[in-house]
Amino acid sequence: MSSFRTRLALAARDRVAILNTARGARVLRSLLLGLPFLAASFAVMPVPSANAATSPTLIALTNYSVLGGAGVTCTGATTTTGAVGVSPNNSITGFPSPCSAGGGTHPNDVSGG
């Protein structure tokens, strides 16, 4: 155990001896001068926010017959009584012809999801 303490004391003495040299003083000075800039860079660094999509309320969804995320395609003559919406994409094909949406189409808008 005393061997460990001796090595620890020597290591501490060596660190102090290095700081007493001109090179050690320059290194210490540059470290101390750089700390405020490092702290400031963390202080002004933008924090990424979660850009999660907000979910529509269930009441708003009652206006839709079709609600898609990647796109909506209608290939045959179909009539919906509600709206057709897509979000975050804006791909709605087949409306107004050959299909029709009674509530209109909502590509990539807030009411589309």
Task: Summarize this entry quickly.
By secondary structure, the protein is an alpha/beta fold. It contains three helices and seven strands.
Layout of SSEs?
Elements: H1 2-19, H2 22-44, H3 58-61, E1 64-68, E2 72-73, E3 79-80, E4 83-86, E5 92-93, E6 100-101, E7 105-107
Parallel strand pairs: 1-4, 2-5, 3-6, 4-7
Cα radius of gyration in angstroms:
33 Å
State the total count of DSSP E strands.
7
Q: Per DSSP, what share of the residues sits in E-state strands of 2 or more residues?
A: 15-25%
**Arithmetic mean of pLDDT:** 75
Question: Which structural class is indicated by helix and strand composition?
Answer: alpha/beta
Spatially, the strands of the biggest sheet line up as: 1-4-7
Largest sheet: 3 strands, parallel
Total of DSSP H or I helical runs spanning 4+ residues = 3
**Low-confidence runs:** none
Shape: rod-shaped
- Domain count: the total is 2
Q: Indicate the percent of residues in helices.
A: 25-40%
Q: How far is it from the N-terminal to the C-terminal residue, by CA?
A: 68 Å
List the helices and strands in order: HHHEEEEEEE
